[in-house]
Design brief:
191 residues, Serine Threonine Protein Phosphatase 5, Tetratricopeptide repeat, double-stranded telomeric DNA binding
Length: 191
């Protein structure tokens, strides 16, 4: 059972990757449910499956990223993208070399967490998210200041947020998926 579950999880992850970004796709929803059932059935995540599990969880959350009514965590203040960021952080830790793409995706998720709150009119929450996500480190400060200004303007359609759009986030994640799929071409069920 464990071996078959391992094969199925790998296959479900590949299918999720293939259908990611197809908004409202029945195929994505079907494979999301299969992957979630397989993940829920694991008593503990084997080391060789961690990246696969984390990628599935990331894709499931990013797909629901604009829906603030959807919750994956017991704390309802945690948005789907907030939750996705924690899985992205885990994926980054598992990578052998962290590339520019990793940093771009991290930044896009962080910016989109703020942007989605603003698009829904939750400006106070956007400010709280900004304070939580962006530290006072020198590398974070310029972006933090720009985002704070954007939140004060209460305009979610400013050029800064448009240049770091949700569709760009989806596109960057698809670029990462391509790399992941190349690494995992040996999936038993695909072969």
């Amino acid at each position: 059972e464990a071996v078959a579950a391992d094969w199925m999880l790998g296959f479900a992850c590949c299918c999720l990757c293939r259908h990611f970004g197809e908004e409202g796709s029945a195929a994505f929803r079907r494979w999301r449910d299969v992957a979630q059932a397989l993940i829920n059935g694991l008593s503990e995540i084997p080391t060789h499956q961690k990246k696969t599990v984390h990628l599935c969880q990331l894709l499931i959350r990013v797909a629901k990223g604009k829906n603030l009514e959807c919750h994956f965590e017991s704390d309802h203040r945690i948005s789907p993208l907030d939750s996705a960021l924690s899985f992205w952080t885990s994926i980054e830790r598992e990578e052998i070399k962290v590339e520019k793409l990793h940093e771009e995706i991290r930044r896009l998720i962080q910016i989109q967490i703020v942007a989605v709150h603003m698009e829904n009119g939750y400006f106070k929450e956007a400010t709280e998210v900004l304070e939580r996500l962006f530290t006072d480190s020198a590398s974070d400060k310029p972006l933090r200041v720009k985002l704070a200004t954007v939140i004060k303007s209460k305009d979610p359609y400013v050029p800064l947020l448009q240049s770091f759009s949700y569709s760009l986030l989806i596109s960057k994640i698809k670029s990462y998926i391509e790399l992941f799929m190349k690494e995992n071409e040996t999936n038993f069920l695909i072969q």
